[in-house]
Amino acid sequence: MDLAAARHAGRSEDENALRDAWVLRPPHGDPGPSGRLFAAWRRLTERSPGVDTAALQSVCTLLGLGWNDRLAFLSDEIDQQLAASRPAPLAAAAVVRTVAAVQPSAELLGWWLADQVLALRLRWPLPVPLLMAEAGGPRRAGRRGGLSPQRDGLDVTVCVAVARGAARACRLAAEIAPRAARLDAVVPKLRAKGAGDAVRRLFGDDVVPGTLQTAALSRFAARRLFDRLVTLGAVRELSGRSSFKLYGL
Q1: pLDDT in tens, 54-92
Q2: What is the pLDDT of residues 148-185, one digit of tens each?
Q3: What is the CATH number of the domain that holds 235?
């Protein structure tokens, strides 16, 4: 969904460039605008749903939005939507509409919050970025595709977008599940000390750099481990490069 967010923000990086900006950043270094955008959507999916003032300020920083009083009340707006009896997609649409009204330049934040509202209203353990892909549709004839809070019928289009996003997520899960099962099946064949930590990271993250180093796994051992996993068909090398390789399901 970070690619859809990048398109929505008018950035030209492809998925690999966005991922590289984050994964290959210097330790504790600034990943740049692209990496911060990637980080915003990682934060959405890695933490339990909920938006307080501190979380709102943090994501505004990642999205390049200056903090102000107009944005500060949005956590209260979310609480009001959750207290009402509106269906989840309509509550999400209301939040998008509110953000666009108080600060039109913060539309990307509106979609980030909309996916938070969906998760909170439906009591999901983690948010799923269902709406961002639809909101970040391609431009055609000088106009932005996908969803827009400025268009009529936002409630209906958000309902449709939730259904489309859910179907897309199910298809992706169906693709990943056999790969995850394959990785799980080859774990007993791995003899490298520290292999368990690398496997846990492969299960838990989009990609793992080939330069991974842990207390129990040297960089050299990690390279050998990833080569072994590729040979066994358990993971894929995703960068296509001869150096700075990235591995994942």
Answers
A1: 888 888 888 888 888 888 888 888 888 888 888 999 999
A2: 776 678 888 899 989 988 998 899 889 989 989 998 88
A3: 1.10.10
d(CA 27, CA 6): 23
Question: H/E/C letters for each residue in the chain?
Answer: CHHHHHHHCCCCCCHHHHHHHHHCCCCCCCCHHHHHHHHHHHHHHHCCCCCCHHHHHHHHHHCCCCCCHHHHCHHHHHHHHHHCCCCHHHHHHHHHHHHHHHCHHHHHHHHHHHHHHHHHHHCCCCCCCCCHHHHCCCEECCEECCCCCCCCCHHHHHHHHHHHHHHHHHHHHHHHHHHHHHHHHHHHHCCCCCHHHHHHHHHHCCCEECCCCECCECHHHHHHHHHHHHHCCCCEECCCCCCCCEEEC
For the chain, what is the domain count? 2
Q: Quote the domain boundaries for residue 213.
A: 190-248
Q: Specify the pTM.
A: 0.81
Q: Do 19 and 131 reside in the same domain of the chain?
A: yes
Judgement on whether residues 134 and 203 belong to the same structural domain of the protein: no
Query: What are residue 64's phi and psi, to 5 degrees?
Result: 75, 25
Do both 112 and 208 map to the same domain? no
Question: Is the distance from CB of 221 to CB of 211 less than 8 angstroms?
Answer: no
Same domain, 117 and 196: no
